[in-house]
Amino acid sequence: MSDAKPSSTDVARLAGVSQKTVSRVLNGEPYVKEEVRLRVQAAVRELGYRRNDAARALNSGRTKRIGVVCLGTALFGPSTQLVAVERALRTTGYSVTIVNTLEGDTIADAVEHLLEQGVDGIILSEPIDEGDGVPIEADLPVLSFGRLPGLSAKPSLVTGGDNVGGGRTATEHLLGLGHRTVWHVAGPQRWWAAQDRLAGWRQALAAAGVPEPPVLEGDWLPASGYAAGRELAANPDVTAVFVANDDMAIGVLRALAEAGRSVPGDVSVVGFDDIPSAAFLTPPLTTVPQDFDLHVDRGIANLVTEIESPTGDRSPLPESPPLRLVVRHSTAAPHPAG
Known about the structure:
Layout: H1 8-15, H2 19-26, H3 34-47, H4 53-60, E1 65-70, H5 76-90, E2 95-100, H6 107-117, E3 121-124, E4 142-145, E5 156-159, H7 163-176, E6 183-186, H8 192-208, E7 216-217, H9 222-233, E8 240-243, H10 246-258, E9 268-273, E10 286-289, H11 292-308
Parallel strand pairs: 1-2, 1-3, 3-4, 4-5, 6-7, 6-8, 8-9, 9-10
């Protein structure tokens, strides 16, 4: 019995097609009849065929691998986005290599590490403000999930939810209920998403001509929301709070409850993200959902197109749809004075 590994030639012979057709099927290329695709896939399974990725890279000039730079965090937004990335890439034939910016590494450090490993494109999954932009010296496309001023890679693609608009929508909702102003528990300001949500809050207050209270900054986690909530609970003038994410909003709700201030009777609270537990809190949380699958799917589709057809014409990524508000029971009109 031979120990030789099956080859693409064996797959082609068993499926009754050419080697070129086998290659097109395995690379997920379009314009292959479904019946032919299924026949090739059945032959691959029957023979136990595995592609030689190193040889494929030499032949095509591509590794069929995309590098992802992330912060190594288990926060809801980044972790949900990373799952969406892995899911979307499964259908493209590309694998994922992930590098975390831990131990003080910069985004540029992480990108350099990916370039050393060999990737065809790079995804920046949680853009943060490092002060001097992101100089990436690489002749490959880069996709950023969220704005990243100073990104020098060419070509570069940017997609993601409208954090400014989401922050504005949350604040306008509270002002529309009749609150004199809205307080804000912001995310860490080295995150561009946190800066944008803060900017949306400020825009809404300015447009309404109402005073801007001091900003309380958290770190995305419930404990920091709880600390901010204790400060807010001690201030009788606070009747409405926009919190930059739902996890911190959970901490705010806990602090208000401990201080005997009811939600929404005394204080209305709006979060951001619509985490799975938001609808089951007491009270259920009004929040701004993000459609991670939408911007991940379209971002990766454009990234793969840029990798495989670098000289083709590019249509700009469509504008992100406005982030809507899911209104639950944590917001209401303020009690009349006195």
